[in-house]
Amino acid sequence: MFAHEVGSGTPLVLLHGFGLDHRSLLPLDPVFERSGRWRRIYLDLPGATRTPADGISGSQQVADAVVDQVRARTGEEPFAVLGNSWGGMIARHVAHELRSQVLGLATVAGVFVATHADRTVPPRTVLRQEPAVEPILGAAVEHYREDAVVESADGARAFLEHLLPGIEGADQAALDRIGRRYALDREPEDSPPFTRPALHITGRQDDVVGHLDAWRRVDHYPRGSFAVLDAAGHNILTEQQDLCAALITDWLSRIRRYS
Question: Which of 45, 50, 214, 235 is the most exposed place for a label (fewest CB within 10 A)?
């Protein structure tokens, strides 16, 4: 499994969304750099640009492969894990499967209910349209507008640099195969509560995963901060970049101070 590693210190495993690759999470790296002493391990999950998905036919197999990869890269060393969207679902599995060495768990617009028809999501809403994104994005404008709630030139440029390469580099046949068995075999929260510092960031206008399904798990995370951000859809990392950065900084601080 390909990994982009940077920094030194406590391992922090980062898991991207479905159909993307590790580059979608690189805008967060300055947050980790400022927080100090974190060895960031950005994985390309099976089917992403630089990791083949041979023999992988569902999310549970991806989650099991990530557990094996984390063990191989961290040994028995304590680590933290953060996942975005589908990566959030995988991160939840990793955190519970390896909970004895997990320092903290964070999800950003994380999947909590695998089947889209069973999710509680708001209606599709666009709060701001920005004609200036069209010449920036060119043929990629429709991809960007599939999830954008607050359009901006900065968001469009971030999409081109960090999301589009993963979309174009993905193994679509592998994603189709995994998508047919998208759910985990068991819900991580069907186990004792997760008592390490946790963070779950959701978008008020996120019509892909919503926010209510995450909040239904609030009692499972007695050390968890839950945030629902207005003016944020599934592209919450770019639409509410500063708030996400502040919340993740606080999560990392809580890990250092209280784990």
Answer: 50
Structure tokens that stand for 160 in this block = 């081109």
Q: Where are the domains of the chain?
A: 3-258
- SS in 3 state form for the chain? CCEEEECCCEEEEEECCCCCCHHHHHHHHHHHHHHCCEEEEEECCCCCCCCCCCCCCCHHHHHHHHHHHHHHHHCCCCEEEEEECHHHHHHHHHHHHCHHHEEEEEEECCCCCCCHHHCCCCCCCCCECCCCHHHHHHHHHHHHHCCCCECCHHHHHHHHHHHHHHHHHCCHHHHHHHHCCCCCCCCCCCCCCCCCCEEEEEECCCCCCCCHHHHCCHHHCCCEEEEEECCCCCCHHHHCHHHHHHHHHHHHHHHHHHC
Q: What's this model's pTM, rounded to 2 decimal places? A: 0.97
Phi then psi for residue 25, to 5 deg, are -100, -5
Phi and psi at 95, nearest 5°, equal -60, -35
| CATH fourth-level superfamily of 3-258 | Alpha/Beta hydrolase fold, catalytic domain (3.40.50.1820)
Distance CA 39, CA 221 (A): 25
Segment 15-70, tens digit of pLDDT? 999 999 999 999 999 999 999 999 999 999 999 999 999 999 999 999 999 999 99
